[in-house]
Amino acid sequence: SGNFFLIAGPCVVESRENVFEVAEKVIAITEKLKIPYIFKSSFKKANRTKGGSFMGIGDEKALEILAEVKAKFGVPVVTDIHESQDAAFAARYVDILQIPAFLCRQTDLLVAAANTGKVVNVKKGQFLSGEAMKFAVDKIVDAGNKKVMLTDRGNSFGYTDLVVDYRNIPAMKETGVPVIMDCTHSLQQPNQASGVSGGKPELIETIAKAAIAVGADGLFIETHPNPSIAKSDGANMLKLDYLEDLMVKLVRLRQAL
Amino acid sequence: SGNFFLIAGPCVVESRENVFEVAEKVIAITEKLKIPYIFKSSFKKANRTKGGSFMGIGDEKALEILAEVKAKFGVPVVTDIHESQDAAFAARYVDILQIPAFLCRQTDLLVAAANTGKVVNVKKGQFLSGEAMKFAVDKIVDAGNKKVMLTDRGNSFGYTDLVVDYRNIPAMKETGVPVIMDCTHSLQQPNQASGVSGGKPELIETIAKAAIAVGADGLFIETHPNPSIAKSDGANMLKLDYLEDLMVKLVRLRQAL
Amino acid sequence: SGNFFLIAGPCVVESRENVFEVAEKVIAITEKLKIPYIFKSSFKKANRTKGGSFMGIGDEKALEILAEVKAKFGVPVVTDIHESQDAAFAARYVDILQIPAFLCRQTDLLVAAANTGKVVNVKKGQFLSGEAMKFAVDKIVDAGNKKVMLTDRGNSFGYTDLVVDYRNIPAMKETGVPVIMDCTHSLQQPNQASGVSGGKPELIETIAKAAIAVGADGLFIETHPNPSIAKSDGANMLKLDYLEDLMVKLVRLRQAL
Amino acid sequence: SGNFFLIAGPCVVESRENVFEVAEKVIAITEKLKIPYIFKSSFKKANRTKGGSFMGIGDEKALEILAEVKAKFGVPVVTDIHESQDAAFAARYVDILQIPAFLCRQTDLLVAAANTGKVVNVKKGQFLSGEAMKFAVDKIVDAGNKKVMLTDRGNSFGYTDLVVDYRNIPAMKETGVPVIMDCTHSLQQPNQASGVSGGKPELIETIAKAAIAVGADGLFIETHPNPSIAKSDGANMLKLDYLEDLMVKLVRLRQAL
């Protein structure tokens, strides 16, 4: 459609109700605006700051709900994996395997994901340059899988802040794969004394507009009907009610490029 | 006009010929595109990395050329000052006094600039948050001058790189003054072993598009007919021939906001 | 002995000859200077920047060589693991399991390491504060294993540099576990265009002295008879011939605390 | 004496009583420990974050108090200047002119300081590498003054934190001039919402010990009998009562090098 695509959903699978509510609402918006849509949710949060934080409702149970989204709504589904043994397992349920930013250099994990034949979406490490992501792409392509995407989620900027370097969008596009801006995790405030990351969701529009302007192919936005009660990343998710208005502005911007 | 405004010109006054050539060409472009234009050039480079680098053709001689630009072409002119004693002196020739980023916390300098009654454009220090720039605005307003502008030129990111944090545009707009993105100095590569800053001019378009998308009121772009022979900042200025094409894209983007 | 302890060895198990040569020489030095010594080498390099870089001689073969070091020389041995399935496997051969910095937030990996009952040495992520490492310690202790150590290897500082923040040594000591400075990886220069990290081994002494002065309990130093032909991290390892002289200086410094 | 030297005093001249109290107590300590001592205080705070913050008791009045310290106690005195016109003026009262970190690239200021014939102590900008400080040294030496010192006060690390990079000590020593660690400003926490910098004085010992260990020639420590009521930088100054104990530890460390 000449439009950008959207990867969106709640940070983690909390319940079938929550997942279906989000999917349904986002699909209504993206169909109206002709935005290709991919549903995202984690089946497991494997790298919470603190032990004791919510890690999921059970791996299989969560993945089955994701497969239901795919079956019922006909949209592709993405979830993230953390160890190579997860790759084939998660691939039975979803279309796209996502590699978390901290893990983007783990060769075994990238190769295991590549070997499933699924699309692999690699998040850029908070410590890596956009240029260096070509080595991640190469590891997957060399394993025989050309279906790669790259996602920026900001760089470490002191201990308690992240900064998005928009030079990384054109740098990553040099690899020839679709490049996505993660508009919610980029606004995390890590290393809080509480062990719970903070956030600045009021800046999601700023992060997203700049990304579209510089040529991002897709956007990644975690969204929840009520972020204040969400079980993970509540501090930076977009309230679902705000999504349509944001998308309208971004589609208009995209058309001006 | 609903458009953004442009501050542009060669980094330093090299010669009347160079200044007039740039002014004439930029005016032709900005008139066609209805972009309000302010001519910029430094009369003196007071903080070169290395002693021995070109510092100017003589303060008065350079300022007189700037006054000629103003008289002949009818465009406002901006130049930067470095010590409080320069404020009244430079104010005799130009419309806007610019405070360099390294000096944005020097109270005497801000107050001296404020006292001239001219517009004061303060560049955000590479070490300051957008929020902290409200204190610079306050210092000028408290001295009785409400004509303030703020300009972002990136943040220190390791020793040899800068990163633009686009969250600073809305943060600085909170002060109520016009906010400008400096698209060329943001791409400097400081602390080079040679004592001459490097640059990445091929990314000017990226920096500028993101700035317009997130609501910058103006852009600051140093430009030269032939940056490779320029006497200062040759590594990051925009080749003058590329300016029109860039402005066309940016005007279109601005209209989509 | 009131002394600091030393974790040292070649980055990766290249061959039995290489491993034995390093172990023998380091043991001679540390016995003379009464420095408790732990032999370190990776059995597998799982997160090289580039695919195609040397990853090891074979997992079991490498681990068996490590077990031989332990048996023959009577020194404890440490190696790093990357996925939870490696934990029990590696624990059959070594005394200490090391968690790489990129992986220090992976709960499953920390818990799997904890469950082996071995000592777990967690490297501080380049993106984490010293204070936040208490959550890593907690994850291991909560799994029932109190034998934890923490190691600093620097923080991201722009894309191509790391900086060691010595405030992290006392911050991590607050957790009550031994704190180690990794003097060689702290000097890596990541994100090089070549896909091979650079380094600054001439600064190892600077990094080590500051660490001892601020109270580090141990030092981690990768060393090789001839770093220029090493199969991994050649750019930052210490030439083995320089080790004794360095240790003499550091022991003297330690005694003055 | 083979010892390091100490630059210390209250951040700003608050009153004769305060200045004399600090001078007297520091002199007693440094004479006992054979630490060469230079008294430091600012006659004017020219770059406070906020307008309205205390800037001083009057330039001449403050400088006269500094001259009295010199006359009465026989110790050299240092103060900082901010514009070139201050150089000759301040030089009439003090022995050493200090260039603030934000201003270390201002050529006119460095040259004006050099021209007084006094020692010039240049603080490293929070945005500069240690290597790049050689250009500051060159500017002063080229103006005919070889009496230069360099002081590190940390690097920008995100907006609200600084990090000391100890690699800069040997890098600056390459220029052949004495190198000093500023142990109190290095612990500032800039860009606070309040417009008043925060601090972490409990870490002064950590910063100082690491500096001595890596070869710093001198230490710079702001100290006050009661930092909580100080008129500037109260958040990071050392309580005067803690100075002797700290110096004893550092002298012992220095002797072990």
Overview of the molecule:
Four copies of one chain form a homotetramer. Chain A is globular. In chain A, strand 3, helix 3 (84-91) and strand 4 (96-99) form a beta-alpha-beta unit. The first copy, chain A, is of the alpha/beta class and 257 residues long. Chain A is 34% helix and 17% strand. Chain A has an eight-stranded parallel β-barrel, surrounded by six helices. A two-stranded antiparallel sheet of chain A has the order 7-8. The mean pLDDT of chain A is 96. The interface between B and D is large, with 38 and 38 residues.
CATH class category label of chain A: Alpha Beta
What overall geometry of chain A do the principal axes of the alpha carbons give? globular
Q: Biggest protein-protein interface?
A: A-C, 38 and 38 residues
Number of strands of chain A: 11
H/E element order of chain A? EHEHEHEHEHEEEHEHEEH
* Mean pLDDT reading of chain A: 96
